[in-house]
Amino acid sequence: MAVQQINTTPYFRASSTLITILVWFLLTVSFSHAAQRDVDCLRSLTESLQDPNNSLNTWDFSNTTEGSICRFTGVDCWHPDENKVLNIRLVDMGLRGEFPLGLSGCSSMTGLDLSSNHISGQIPNNISKVVGYLTSLDLSNNRFSGEIPADLANCTYLNILKLDHNQLTGPIPYQIGNLNRLRTITVTNNHLSGPIPHFVNSTIQADSFANNPGLCGEPLPPCGGPSVKHRTPIVIGAAVGGVTVGALVFAVGMFFFLRRVARKKKEEDLLGNKWAKSIKGTKRIKVRYTYAI
Ligand SMILES: *[C@@H]1O[C@H](CO)[C@@H](O)[C@H](O)[C@H]1NC(C)=O
Ligand SMILES: *[C@@H]1O[C@H](CO)[C@@H](O)[C@H](O)[C@H]1NC(C)=O
Ligand SMILES: *[C@@H]1O[C@H](CO)[C@@H](O)[C@H](O)[C@H]1NC(C)=O
Ligand SMILES: *[C@@H]1O[C@H](CO)[C@@H](O)[C@H](O)[C@H]1NC(C)=O
Ligand SMILES: *[C@@H]1O[C@H](CO)[C@@H](O)[C@H](O)[C@H]1NC(C)=O
After folding, report:
1. Which atom number of ligand 1 is nearest to the Cα of residue 63?
2. Residues 6+ positions from 169 with CB-CB distance below 8 Å
3. For atom 14 of ligand 5, which residue has the closest CA?
4. Does pLDDT of 269 surpass 90?
5. Measured in angstroms, how far is the CA atom of residue 84 from the centroid of ligand 3?
6. Tens-digit pLDDT profile for residues 137-194
7. How confident is the model at residue 50 (pLDDT cuts 50, 70, 90)?
8. Chain segment 16-47, per-residue pLDDT in tens
9. Closest CA to 119 of 168, 71, 166, 80
10. Which residue ranges does UniProt annotate as crossing the membrane (predicted)?
């Protein structure tokens, strides 16, 4: 028994060590690819955004320890020892530049808050390909311009969408209303116009849409009124209508006036005994008021 134990223990120890190393190696290889994508995602963010206030000075990519990015300012991971980004919150850091498209590498990210910076340009029109699993997106208080991309409606997990205080123009795409998990949407203080979409599974209050001079429809006043966008056709319509009515009134007036003149003239002519002249005159007048009408 003792002999056997002496003989097998070193062998057993060696093989278990080997297995441990093998398992560790396999796990590392299988996870490192995904983890490296998230590291590259954050690195690309620092490359596409300017950081004049050096707010991201804790973002040190030289430490390659698993979980090191989880200590970066504004980064939450799913697990503190695994390079897998859950949320990015970079609020009021003086960041500039355009929406970081490299965020597509953070494929497990569910929350993105870039509010209160100076980020400009358009919201990417393939945003669902970049950050398609977000439940919360906050781009408020930046300098985003252009239209709200309809592709946001393909970010089907969105609960919260904040786009207020930017320079967005055009309509709110009606497809956004089909986001059935959406609870909060704010687009106040932009330059949006057109009808507010119907939201399938939530009631959004009017103050979420305030300070967009061209927006209309529930819960704002109905779109039938003279909104900025529709004012020009109405003015043209009124002008055309006015001119038509004026012309009609004028024509009818002329009709009666000329008929009276003709009658009077006929009476005078009859009195003056000028037959031929009177017939010619009536004909000419008839032709004239036909043209007038
Ligand atoms: C690298 O990151 C790990 C995890 O955050 C930390 O424990 C370690 O101290 C860091 N190493 C250096 C050299 O900063
Ligand atoms: C960035 O730095 C500028 C100049 O020092 C300062 O005025 C501004 O408040 C800072 N912004 C933020 C968000 O820290
Ligand atoms: C999104 O579109 C931009 C160009 O507008 C492109 O460079 C980028 O690769 C696209 N991203 C994805 C994830 O499709
Ligand atoms: C959603 O994605 C599909 C497939 O990429 C695309 O065809 C469709 O136009 C997108 N929807 C919107 C509203 O952009
Ligand atoms: C709408 O919201 C209710 C709860 O408010 C939820 O139970 C339901 O699943 C939602 N519908 C859809 C289509 O997501």
Report:
1. 1
2. 145, 146, 147, 190, 191, 192, 193
3. 180
4. no
5. 22
6. 999 999 999 999 999 999 999 999 999 999 999 999 999 999 999 999 999 999 999 9
7. very high
8. 666 565 556 555 555 566 678 999 999 999 99
9. 166
10. 234-258
Cα 140 to ligand 3 centroid, rounded to whole Å: 22
The Cα–Cα gap between 220 and 148 comes to 19
Q: How many CB atoms within 10 Å of residue 31? A: 14
Is there a contact between 80 and 127 (Cβ–Cβ < 8 Å)? no
Residues 56 and 93 sit within 8 Å (Cβ to Cβ): yes
CA-based nearest residue to 160, from 142, 134, 141: 134
pLDDT for 100 equals 97
Tokens of 148: 């709200």
Helix orientation angle between 275-292 and 231-272, rounded to the nearest 10 degrees: 170
CB-defined site of ligand 2, < 6 Å: 53, 92-94
For the chain, what is the radius of gyration of the CA atoms?
A: 38
CB 84 within 8 A of CB 66: no
Residue 119 DSSP symbol: E
- At position 91, the amino acid (one-letter code) is V
Structure tokens that stand for 165 in this block: 């205080």
Look-up: residue for tokens 């002249």?
A: 277
Torsional sign, CA 173, 177, 180, 185? positive
